Amino acid sequence: MSGFFALVGRDIRIALRQFSDTMMVIVFFVIAAALFPFGVGPEPNLLARMAPGILWVTALLAAMLSFDRLFQNDYDDGTLELLVIAPQPLWMTALAKIIAHWLTTGLPLLVASPVIGIMLNLEPRGFGVLIAAMALGTAIISLVGALGAALSLGSRRSGVLLSLLVLPLVIPVLIFGAGAVDAAIGGFPATQQLLVLGGLLLGCIVVCPWGCAVALRLAAD
Amino acid sequence: MSGFFALVGRDIRIALRQFSDTMMVIVFFVIAAALFPFGVGPEPNLLARMAPGILWVTALLAAMLSFDRLFQNDYDDGTLELLVIAPQPLWMTALAKIIAHWLTTGLPLLVASPVIGIMLNLEPRGFGVLIAAMALGTAIISLVGALGAALSLGSRRSGVLLSLLVLPLVIPVLIFGAGAVDAAIGGFPATQQLLVLGGLLLGCIVVCPWGCAVALRLAAD
Amino acid sequence: MVSHMDGFSGTGLACVRSNRIVFAGLDFAVSPGGALVLSGPNGSGKSSLLRLMAGIARPAAGNISWQGTPISEDPEMFFARMHYVGHRDAVKPALTVRENLSFHAALRPGPTDINAALDRVDLAALADLPARMLSAGQTRRLTLARILATPAPLWLLDEPTIALDYRAVDRLRGAIDDHRAGGGIIVASTNVPLGIDDATTIDLAAHAPEIDALWGDESTGEPAEDVR
Amino acid sequence: MVSHMDGFSGTGLACVRSNRIVFAGLDFAVSPGGALVLSGPNGSGKSSLLRLMAGIARPAAGNISWQGTPISEDPEMFFARMHYVGHRDAVKPALTVRENLSFHAALRPGPTDINAALDRVDLAALADLPARMLSAGQTRRLTLARILATPAPLWLLDEPTIALDYRAVDRLRGAIDDHRAGGGIIVASTNVPLGIDDATTIDLAAHAPEIDALWGDESTGEPAEDVR
Amino acid sequence: MLHRFANPTRFLRLANAVLPWATGLTILLIGAGLYFAFGASPADYQQGETVRIMYIHVPSAWMAMFAYAFIAVASAVGLIWKHPVAHVCALAAAPIGACFTLICLTTGSLWGKPMWGTWWVWDARLTSVLVLFFLYLGFIALANAFDDAARGEKASAILALIGAVNLPIIKFSVDWWNTLHQPASISRIDMPAVHTSMLIPLLLMAVGFTMLFTVLVIIRARAELADRRINALRSARIHAETAHSGA
Ligand code: HEM
Ligand SMILES: Nc1ncnc2c1ncn2[C@@H]1O[C@H](COP(=O)(O)OP(=O)(O)OP(=O)(O)O)[C@@H](O)[C@H]1O
Ligand SMILES: Nc1ncnc2c1ncn2[C@@H]1O[C@H](COP(=O)(O)OP(=O)(O)OP(=O)(O)O)[C@@H](O)[C@H]1O
Ligand SMILES: [Mg+2]
Ligand SMILES: [Mg+2]
Description:
heteropentamer, A: mainly alpha, binds adenosine-5'-triphosphate
């Protein structure tokens, strides 16, 4: 277990030492969301209607940008080999990295999302559900993204390949996440969508660290 | 000049040898564009109205993903140092890399954009202008993106950093590009917007290779 | 060659990279306190063999045992008893020298002495500098400090002296001698003489296969009829 | 030391990295056919000096001249006459060995002989293999083939023998001798003896500043008061 | 001894024996199916001639799912028993499956225009088929994205296994969510007057498509195996030359 915490601690420390990195995911989120009023035109009604969708899509794309370095640096400098032959289960190593990733990018995205909601004229009664859904959603995205990152490790142009692998797999997150917010805005309960997201999260927690571990072992080979 | 063509040739050859790579930018483009209907809901009218905006934003984001490796590989393996001390002007080197980038990602995006237009119910009379605007726009994006990539070289997570540098710079492209398509759909001439894009392109051709050269020299130091 | 119940050994090892057999039919055995040096020209498979020994890659044939147990049987037990230093440095430029070392030490069980290890490789004065400020040789020394920070009876070193100055090479040699005096085993690949006089040497060039196509017909190396 | 009108020289060179003076007051001069070996312990600034010489980085003080002209005056002319081989290999894994070499050759003016260069480093048989399949030493040999493929009177080599086997080292030494016999100049940094008997040697350790923190207090090496 | 884990001879012998039969059956079944579908079967009383799209749409939808299941099973075999031919088969099947999926998507859209008044709706059935298509693309891209082919095989095999979760979603999406799309029941087609005349060509086409799939997989797998063999021989020869010149 000491290795587990050492790994989480190290990744967070690296992220904090370059604090601007964490900021950047958020700023990308903000800018990408801000582009839409330019592209679509600033009519408040249209924007408010699109807000949940834009929020989720841009959060996803922002998270996507952070994945390509999740294992890449460790892979390039030989740390990954050492993690693979460290005397602790590899899925625990993978889980530690995933948790560190969520803490350094998922959490900031979560914190930033209400701000973007305001920018996009999201209706006030959507905010509570937005945050709940985002919490579940970003965790799923971290898990699935890590799996994609591990699978595409060592490939050429892993960044784009990664998007190709991850985006289709997180489509359900998008549908139910945006659906939950839409429901809340419309005044309906969003319980069902949130339950589905919770179920997806549980499934991912079971499958992804294991898949990551297999993929990482392959990558080191 | 032989160095110029050697560089364009090498980059294209690397891209072709891994043909699937070029495909991936397009596939990302397609997937990202396809995500919006999920998030926003599939009403054809709303989609058609948003289509130009979504098209441009996703093309931008797709191109963005391809920049983080534009100089990064050369930087990591020491090729960049050698390019900096090659006996030809560095801006020519930069221009060669930019041209190769456009040929391997801008051009495919250009080719794919009508398909996405169909997916998003874009009105038929917008297509001609869409392609013209995309041709100008992707070239500008390649130029500006290369500048951003050169500037952010050597920092970790340069992918995200460079989005921050590049996105604000290409907002004008987005506005006039989407504006041109909107105009065409509305039945107005889009000449003015296309002229502005052309002007931007000229400006970028003058400024960006030179800026790249300065940034690359700094990065190698 | 007999398999040593108390040492590190491998029999009938073969390594395949990109469909090509690099070496085959390789046996080795080292007993406690012993040293094995892998030599051979560039590309003969020294690094590949070390990666097999470390359990990073799997051999295409044959197996490797630690104290009589195949390493694939209980890998974690084996990993806890082994240090591997490859071509690459596993050093994070953003962290300080000490943080880098502590991280790697925390991944492993057992007692840890960071300061002694840094002292031993002469990096104590640079301990709180970010690792990005190290030169090639200093970085390599930081990598080698890893094997001194936590104890392990087996050291696998891939060209450990690369980029080191002569003083650092002397210190490394001293560390290796101490390790062996305590019953440790060392396997090192190298292109330059390491100066371990009593080491067994395996020349990888001697294990290059004669016909090395995986798919070929045994006698001629031609594809068999039915594929065409 | 006089500046050679027909050679490669530098005076009063100083190098600063991350606010620390690595060396200062360094002069060198090599005439055609000459060799200069940079020695010194790890971190003494060998690589940093070579990068100054190559024009990749600018010296903090002093200047460097090629045939009497400061290299910063007409860098392209200087670059055309110089080969630099650094720690990193500049090899693209996706391209074949030959394509890698041709690319680097095309960046430079003058006659090119790819095949002869590949022959010389014993890679002719691997010419059409993707470079990703090369081992550490083979990759290094490909890097060294660059300086043989197109002629240039000045070679700057940073630890050229790293990862090479003894045969390759011999071949490199032969190439260096030929180069010098033709009036070429060579500057090489190294931690292991290169075997160039008549080379001038600069010991970087001798040029380390006494007070080596730009901001530090002279006597204690502690940061000065005003910085805190 | 090394041949044991890599020799595809047995597979090739089997494949070569099956291939002519499968080819013959393919031509026969699809030929007959097309004849019945476009010549000998009546137009539907509700849907008119457009019903004939069904004879392409439904079999290719089935094949899209079948091919993915085939890939998932082959991938599992490759991962667990480390049989290289299994990976080769999975890789050979992927583009074919992707084509069937694309055919299903396009014929579905073509059918959707007259039936639903739109080319595309974002309902669960259509969405999950689109996700299947992306999974195929991801599988192919991942398999080809590595310098080391063996690595690509294994990575894509993991993806195939994880992506298999999508198959039940496609199958049951029409039951779980109410959508525009027909629920899965052959009885839907079981309309009194046209029962056998529509069912026979449908089944002929379905079996014919399966045979076509078999033929294409065998051909592609054989080509891939031969390709690998040539590569191995070439690098072996190069290596032998180096060893020679080095000595
Ligand atoms: C792009 C749009 C479409 C897609 C992706 C699609 C997909 C599918 C899939 C995957 C199946 C196999 C279901 C199974 O075996 O359980 C299927 C079957 C079928 N589809 Fe579609 N479809 C589309 C449009 C349509 C349209 C427009 C119609 C007609 C109105 C239609 C009619 C049918 C019928 C009759 C079946 C057979 C159901 C059965 O198993 O009895 N489809 N489709
Ligand atoms: N990227 C860098 N940033 C800051 N300081 C650096 C950097 N690289 C090296 N240094 C510092 O500059 C000094 C000289 O480094 P240099 O790489 O030139 O040494 P070297 O003589 O080549 O050593 P070696 O034999 O280890 O290669 C070292 O003390 C090192 O700490
Ligand atoms: N990533 C790789 N993919 C395919 N083949 C490889 C790869 N790395 C090495 N090889 C091949 O495997 C063989 C053995 O390589 P290895 O790196 O083990 O050699 P080595 O003995 O360590 O050589 P060196 O002294 O140059 O480090 C080489 O012939 C090389 O061509
Ligand atoms: Mg090696
Ligand atoms: Mg150095």
